[in-house]
Structure formats: structure tokens, C-alpha cells
């Protein structure tokens, strides 16, 4: 990770890359290793991909900027879809999950209120998709909770 304590530009390909088994691909742009007090990454979501398990973070806010495509979110009991240019703000404690909708991949830029949120995402990506118990264990390590043990949405 590029980080000097004096500011830096993390160019395409310089960040740690991760792939979710759901189809998401991402690249870490900032985390604890960069000396930041927040986490920052970009993710590409093919149609139907995202984070299909309803979950919450007890002590971490998240913000998503949708740079392209459309993404459907469950936020608490509401369902909302945002397109390119939309910002999605998820305070700590709000149950959520999301998926790309439409015919093209969506690109999201995500900031986590705790820089370790990026570590959590990378661990979840490495865990595979078939074991909700493993997801629950990883989420618990980061003061988060898995609320459903089956994907919220069926495959598109």
C-alpha cells in the first residue's frame, strides 16, 4: 500500500486487489497500512453481484459512491436503487445488503469509518461464498453481525 504520512496518489493497480466469489472485484486504495483513519476501496459488481447477506456494523459507518451502473440496496426495511452519481450513506447499526442491477456492471467507491473495514472486506472475499458461519465469524471480529444465513436475493 502506498502511504507516506504526507499524502499520496494510489494509481490503478497499486492497491491490494480482492475478488469475491459473488463476482465482485476490488482494489484497496487506503487503509491502516496507509496511516489513515478510514478505509477506502473501489469495487466492480457484475449484474447481480454485491453483498447478498443482510448484515450490520455496530460501530462503523459506510459510504458508497456509485460511479457507474445501478445498485439496489436494502437499508433497514427499505429498498432503494441508486445510479451513477448517487451517494449511499449507511450509519452504524443499519442492516444492509446490496447488488448491482441492470445489464451492465456497477462500479462503487466505498469508504468505511474504520480503516479495518477494508481488512474485513478482504477477509470476506477470501472466505468463499458457501459458508455463512465463516462470514459470521469474520464479521464478529470487526464488531459486525450477519443477520441472514442465506443470500437475501436469488441469483439474477
Provide a descriptive summary of the structure in words.
There is one protein chain. The chain has about 160 residues and is mostly beta strands. The chain has helices spanning about 115-125, 130-140; strands spanning about 15-20, 25-30, 40-45, 50-55, 60-70, 70-75, 80-85, 85-90, 95-100, 105-110, 145. The protein has a single domain (about 30-145), classed as Jelly Rolls, CATH 2.60.120. It is built from two helices and eleven strands. The strands form two sheets. It has a six-stranded antiparallel beta sheet with strand order 1-2-3-10-5-8, covered by helices on one side. The mean pLDDT is about 85.
Essential attributes:
156 residues; mainly beta; six-stranded antiparallel beta sheet; five-stranded antiparallel beta sheet
Total strand count, please?
A: 11
* CATH uppermost class: Mainly Beta
Order of strands, widest sheet: 1-2-3-10-5-8
Helix content: 10-25%
Cα-atom radius of gyration: 15 Å
* Low-confidence blocks of residues: none
Gist?
14% of the residues lie in helices and 40% in strands. The chain is mainly beta and 156 residues long. It has one domain: Jelly Rolls, CATH 2.60.120.
Amino acid at each position: 500500500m502506498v502511504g507516506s504520512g504526507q499524502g499520496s496518489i494510489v494509481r490503478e493497480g497499486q492497491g491490494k486487489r480482492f475478488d469475491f466469489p459473488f463476482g465482485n472485484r476490488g482494489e484497496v486504495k487506503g487503509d491502516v497500512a496507509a496511516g489513515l483513519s478510514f478505509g477506502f476501496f473501489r469495487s466492480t459488481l457484475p449484474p447481480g453481484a454485491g453483498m447478498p447477506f443482510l448484515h450490520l456494523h455496530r460501530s462503523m459507518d459506510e459510504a458508497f459512491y456509485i460511479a457507474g451502473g445501478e445498485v439496489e440496496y436494502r437499508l433497514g426495511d427499505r429498498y432503494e436503487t441508486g445510479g451513477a452519481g448517487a451517494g449511499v450513506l449507511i450509519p452504524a447499526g443499519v442492516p444492509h445488503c446490496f447488488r448491482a442491477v441492470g445489464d451492465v456492471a456497477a462500479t462503487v467507491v466505498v469508504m468505511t469509518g474504520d480503516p479495518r473495514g477494508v481488512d474485513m472486506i478482504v477477509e470476506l472475499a477470501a472466505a468463499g461464498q458457501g459458508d455463512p458461519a465463516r462470514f459470521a465469524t469474520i464479521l464478529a471480529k470487526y464488531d459486525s453481525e450477519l443477520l441472514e444465513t442465506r443470500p437475501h436475493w436469488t441469483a439474477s
